[in-house]
Prior knowledge:
Elements: E1 18-20, E2 25-27, E3 52-55, E4 59-60, E5 68-69, E6 78-79, E7 96-98
Amino acid sequence: MSSRSDPPRMMCGHAANALDVKTNQPSCVICITTRPEFARTINADYSIEKREARCGYDKPGEGGGGKYRLHEDGDSITPSRIQLAFFESKPLEEWDLYYCGCWGWD
């Protein structure tokens, strides 16, 4: 169950990460310009309890040459929660996604 301080989930699957100044409603700055139809909050009945999320980004791999390895070792798997950075709910897929910081935060 989510607490009052949790941001709402958006139709795009991300946690709300902005406030639309025109409507004073939660918004997603990641998707608003490419998928404005998903700028609404999702049905609150959908639950992410008992789901897991993994980092959706590749990590630099050994050997260079532009090659990367996925987080195949499972080090990025964590219980799904809306507070994860760039959390994206993927109810029709095995994993939800988030960013673990593997590429840095700057």
